[in-house]
Write a structure and sequence with these properties.
Number of strands of chain A: 10
CATH architecture of the largest domain in chain A: Alpha-Beta Complex
Order of helices and strands of chain A: EEEHHEHEEHEHEHEHHEH
Mean pLDDT of chain B: 96
Bound molecules: zinc ion
Number of domains of chain B: 1
Low-confidence stretches of chain B: none
CATH topology of the largest domain in chain A: 2-enoyl-CoA Hydratase, Chain A, domain 1
Strand content of chain A: 15-25%
Oligomer: heterodimer
Strand content of chain B: 15-25%
Largest interface: A-B, 61 and 50 residues
Order of helices and strands of chain B: HHEEEHHEHHEHEEHHHEHH
CATH class of the largest domain in chain A: Alpha Beta
Radius of gyration of chain A: 18 Å
Number of strands of chain B: 8
Mean pLDDT of chain A: 90
Helix content of chain A: 25-40%
Strand order of the largest sheet of chain A: 4-5-6-7-8-9-10
CATH class of chain B: Alpha Beta
CATH superfamily of chain B: 2-enoyl-CoA Hydratase, Chain A, domain 1
Helix content of chain B: 40-55%
Structural class of chain B: alpha/beta
Number of domains of chain A: 2
Distance between the termini of chain B: 33 Å
CATH superfamily of the largest domain in chain A: 2-enoyl-CoA Hydratase, Chain A, domain 1
Chain lengths: ~290, ~260
Amino acid sequence: MIQFKKNNNLSKNTVFDAKKDTTISLTQCIKCSAKLEDSKIIGSLGVCFYCGYHFKQPARQRIESICDKDSFVELNSNIVSANILDFPDYCTKLENARKASQEEEAVVCGLCTIKGFKVAIFVMEPNFMLGSMGIVVGEKITDLFEHALENELPVVGFTVSGGARMQEGILSLMQMAKISGAVKRHSDAGHLYLCILTNPTTGGVTASFAMGADIILAEPFALIGFAGPRVIEQTTRNRLPEGFQQSDFILEKGFVDDIVERKAQKKYIAKALLLHSYRKELMYDSI
Amino acid sequence: MTAYERVCKTRANDRSTSIDYIESIFTAFTEMHGDRRFGDDKSVIAGIALLNSMPVTVIGIEKGHGIKERSMRNFGSAHPEGYRKALRQMKLAEKFHRPIICFVDTPGAYCGIGAEERGQGQAIAENLMEMMTLKTPIVSIIIGEGGSGGALALAIADEVWMMENAVYSVISPEGCASILWKDVSRANEASECLKLTAVDLYNFNIIEKIIPENDQIFTNVKQELLNVIAKNNTLNHDELTENRYRRFRRMGIFK
Ligand SMILES: [Zn+2]
């Protein structure tokens, strides 16, 4: 199992300010305040074993737990962002994001089997500028959908994002259109797209491929919305109601099919694929 | 003129809004209200009109003039029902083989409690996906502010044009300045960083045309519309939607 990296997601408030006791490596749960041993949280898929809170999970860890063992083959791992707008401090930001996440970009894409079903999969990375969507994210996800269309594969996606990447200006906005086009073509050809929205999924990602799936699931305790809560409070000068934009609220308003906790996701995905008449590549354990 | 001066110009009370364009370019405009799901969003006007003798579907995000009308129009910030009203009319355009013309002028999709409850993100996402494959020609013109996803939701088109002084951006200069420097007053600098003018976007291959803002602006727009519709009407539906997909597919430069 891949280790949590430094600046991992098990943090008090944000991705980057882990409140840790350095000697025994404890992380405090932001929901129930329980102090958890890091090594044990990894074993529980990044879920608090007292209250069930779902910490942000790095892309490679998700892949490890969702894909069948050794089945994941990465696509387009080599394309990296450039500062095409000469945006202030963007190069430094990218450097820091690479260090914090040990990833080249904010999404990891590839092919794998899930309980024997072959799928194209994308997993966004919370430690890379909070899953910010720029040109490379757009290109990798678009290419994945095109690949899936060509090879008649279903797509499984995991989103985590603060939205479009400001530092790439209008070109990042256009990625919403580009990905949406590829999602639509894949859909029109009759293929399944299942997307799991994790904490947080907001902005341009919500307003494009996150909400464009055939089956949309939410992880428990995820913030899901278009505008972030702070922006809404500033715009409306209203305090937001308790639970606003949380998974339960989104389910109640009718925008996701269900809330599925992390440990049940693999089984859910396999069941969905079975229900859509996909066939297993290999004999794996039954779902 | 600096980028920020253009931003301010797009927000000026006397700048032409969608209704001004519609009244000057088309005849017999017949407005159609409501999304058939929740209500009628006054930030978005939609209907059918004649361009010379050709029926066309016209959609516009409307800011209004003067404080009273502006607040009635929610300052051009649409709710989900506005995008759904637009999509309903666009589907009818496809059914009746009418070209679609969108006028975009918005600070952004509305950020509020009701907008979130009714699925602002879902509404925009649906427009992006559906417009991509509509089997009828679409032209979108950014006439003032092109505010992020709220503008894009009406700008999935075969061609996107900008008026000379219009701006189109992923985030408002104020929002950008507050994130970058925690200082809204530096919107001026942020405007430069974001590269949001018509010339910037033309150079990035994001738009096909910049329309000069001289004393003939409505005539200019009308003539360009007649030209592009004549051109796009020669394409079959597959060519049209393939070109539209390719138009967005190529956007993005990477190492
Ligand atoms: Zn807990």
